[in-house]
Amino acid sequence: MALRKSNPSPLHPVQARQHPRDLLGLQQQLGDPDPRQRRMAARDLGAHPQAALSLGQALAVETDGAVREALFTSLATLASEAAVQSLLPLLRSEDPTLRNGAIEALAAMPQAVAPCVDGLLLDPDPDVRIFTVNLLGELRHASVPGWLVQVLRHEAHVNVVAAALEVLAEVGSHAELPALRAARERFDDDAFIQFAADLAISRIEAA
């Protein structure tokens, strides 16, 4: 007699949901003690434009890496003004994982981010200005070169200028060469600025 094979038990049982799948239920699920429940809620809230604030608030306290990733992904999917405003405070976070995640998510929504860039480049905190320049290096938007030229012309903090030079070395064109040379002259006593400007100029001229 042939032996009948029993159905093997799944290696990863389906996780039962503890909350309703409507907006309110998913927002409540973001506070569930089980990170698997929180991850499912974070993922599903990407279909609810009204959830941007809740997703941002969850990111501020979430410690599980997989849940954070789902939160960032949903905010990037929403790509709204509310999603941008939920992510911008993370540029001030002491946690580099949160900062980098915010930059990556913001870079995925260039049209929603664009209205905020001028204000970010004038932020009183030079670290925020540096992170904004880092964001510009990832942002696929036609105004990126112009924003970087603005930094070269008006920024006083040498580290912010250095960050802009590094990005322009990757994304700049011949149109930015006058601003690069002017920045080199403006910081003629800083060896690193001289090096970074020369590198950006040489790369652009060779392209």
Explain how this protein is built.
Helix content is 65%, strand content 0%. It has 207 residues and is mainly α. The longest helix is centred in the C-terminal third of the chain and has 16 residues. The chain is elongated.
Q: What structural category do the secondary elements indicate?
A: mainly alpha
- Count of runs of 4 or more consecutive helical residues: 12
Largest sheet, if any?
A: none
The unreliable regions are 1-6, 8-14
- Overall 3D shape: elongated
* Through-space gap between termini: 75 Å
What is the subunit organization of this protein? single chain
Order of helices and strands: HHHHHHHHHHHH
Task: Using the CA coordinates, give the radius of gyration.
Answer: 23 Å
Percent of residues in beta strands? under 5%
State the total count of DSSP E strands: 0
Mean pLDDT reading: 92
Helix content: 55-70%
Brief write-up:
The chain has 207 residues and is an all-alpha fold.
Defining key terms:
207 residues; elongated; 12 helices; mainly alpha
Topology (SSEs and partners):
Blueprint: H1 23-29, H2 35-44, H3 52-61, H4 65-78, H5 81-87, H6 96-107, H7 110-120, H8 126-138, H9 144-154, H10 158-171, H11 177-186, H12 191-206
Helix pairs in contact: 2-4, 3-4, 3-5, 4-6, 6-8, 8-10, 9-10, 10-12, 11-12
